[in-house]
Amino acid sequence: MQRNHNHPTIVTIEKVINETPTVRTLIFSDEVMSNVLPGQFAMVWIPGVNELPMSVMISQESGKAAFTVRKHGPASTGLFNVEVGGQIGVRGPYGNSFDLKEGKLLLVGGGTGLVPMMRLLTFVKSTDDVTVLIGAKSKEEVFFEDLANSLLKNNSHNVIVSTDDGSYGEKGFVTDLVEKLVDETHYDGVYVCGPEIMMYKTVQSAHSRNIFVQASLERMMKCGVGICGSCCVGEDLACRDGTVFDGDHLSKNKEFGYFYRNKAGILENY
Amino acid sequence: MNQLLYSKLNSLIKVESSIATSIGKIQLDKPVMLASGILGISLDVFNRLYTSGAGAVVTKSLSTEPWEGYPNPTIFSVKGGGWINAVGLSNPGAPNFAKMIEPNQNVPIIVSLVGSIPEDFEMMIKQFENCKVLAYELNLSCPHVAKVGLEVGDDPELVKKIVTTVKNTTVVPVIAKVGLGTSNYLNTVSTAIDSGIDAITAINTVRATAIDVETQRPILSNKFGGLSGTPIKPIALRCVYEISSKYNVPIIGCGGISTWEDAIEFFLAGASAIQLGSAIGDNWIGVFDEINKGILQYMQRKGFSTIKDMVGLAKKS
């Protein structure tokens, strides 16, 4: 039977990479997921545990894809604990993708928000001048720095890491670096994915200077196709209208940066 | 007037067709509504759906308290078509929800309610005193949550008490949404009518499950859920036909409607309006205007000036 993209397809984990003590990348073979666009996500079923939306990570091997997960709640910890040979279900891909500009680009990722940024790097042109900002809490939580450098080896590029505690790279919040960089340089495109406050500040910094900026939003999701309503942000459905939104659009959204919906659908403050 | 004559007249004079409709006392500019359970938790989204051509939006079924619903997986598509869900009636609770929709002026909102006893419904309706509510829809048919929904709908005595209480609590029209449970759903319909219900929505999702053969387990965390979408359309259509044949009550058709032809089928079977949900998952929210347009073109082609002219027509042939 032809694959139904809205029904879980079972894939087997072939390799597990420990990125940090709390972050792992699980690699599997799947042609459909290997070819998703940067920003697109899958609904990932961990049988017996839960199902959660995950940005699809690139793999260096063709026909393969991955999920990079930080153990946090029961669902993400369930995925984190899947071993080689373990089976998970994937449906999708869902959502839109980043609108990649040409020229001077700034990519900002916090934690597993780096996943769509790594995929975006595989789409940049060799003539693009790319700056990647990696935000992490501390040295031991830094990952994808080497990967970003290797993906950009043919580009004029700069990969900058900042840690909140200053144990590695620059000290401080990545958003302070963003503010400094957009003040110095007029980027042709700024792309961000990470904690909502980080995205909110990045969007503000860029948008207020008339720089094209896009953010990939994260919300609780159930269906992935825009029917359950769990992920609504103002009038937008993160899963179907996004997850990628323009800064211009986001700056008019009353909920972005301030509220998310809990499991009962009640707005809560970030 | 028979249809042949209509068609002949239509070729002579241009008939002014309107897709406005009424379900008893409930007036709608457009006959296609958003079904309960779909997208219904934010006023901003309601506004967007209304602007996209929905004649009315039915809220998620609200309970007296906030409910978190079941863990994922809660919704996915069935391989052969259609959707299966066991969201578990997650909702912010009637008091929170009423506050959220209080500013609403423009959107025709039908508030869906779920509860176990008459007092639940009474308490919830009182929350909406300061809100503009077009109608209440009593969910007597959710197939995957204990003590509410179908378990209520299958109990005629309880249905009678609930409908009677609700009718004594509000002057706003009240609709009963019925589905296929363990008892004959027509008994629920007749009990609701005898207790003063203003209209019937038929049907809810049909209790179902799906098993993953690789991991050999049900996919839904709740194991059982409700089937919606195109596979249940013929069943829903049969129910509307049966209800309209047996009872004189306004009917809203619901179940697997995704095209204008589906909508017309439901009108011809006896529905005065329709609701859809799963079609949004497949075709996104442009589906409302698409169906409205298709209905209007059909009416113009066939010479119907109002939706009413079509309602139940299939039974006369």
Q: What does it look like?
A:
- Chain A folds into 2 domains: 86 residues, Beta Barrel (Elongation Factor Tu (Ef-tu), domain 3); 166 residues, Rossmann fold (3-Layer(aba) Sandwich), CATH 3.40.50.80.
- Helix content of chain A is 20%, strand content 35%.
- Chain A has 7 helices and 18 strands.
- In chain A, the strands form 4 sheets. In chain A, strands 4-3-7-1-2-6-5 form a 7-stranded antiparallel β-sheet.
- In chain A, helix 5 runs parallel beside helix 6.
- Chain A starts with 8 loop residues before the first strand and ends with a strand.
- The model of chain A has no long low-confidence stretch (mean pLDDT 96).
- With 317 residues, chain B is an alpha/beta fold.
- In chain B, helix 6 packs parallel to helix 7, helix 8 packs parallel to helix 9 and helix 9 packs across helix 11.
- Chain B has one domain: Aldolase class I (TIM Barrel, Alpha-Beta Barrel).
- Chain B is globular.
- Chain B has an 8-stranded parallel barrel, surrounded by 7 helices. A 4-stranded antiparallel β-sheet of chain B has the order 5-6-14-11, with no helix packed on it. A two-stranded antiparallel ribbon of chain B has the order 1-2.
- Classes of the chains: A alpha/beta (270), B alpha/beta (317).
- Chains A and B meet through strand 4 and strand 7 of A and helix 2, strand 5 and helix 10 of B.
- The name of the CATH architecture of the largest domain in chain A is 3-Layer(aba) Sandwich
CA(first)-CA(last) distance of chain B: 12 Å
**CATH topology label of the largest domain in chain A:** Rossmann fold
Q: Which class do the helix and strand fractions of chain B yield?
A: alpha/beta
Helix content of chain B: 25-40%
What ranges of chain A have pLDDT less than 50 throughout 5 or more consecutive residues? none
What overall form of chain A do the CA principal axes indicate? globular
CATH topology of chain B, which one? TIM Barrel
Oligomer type:
heterodimer
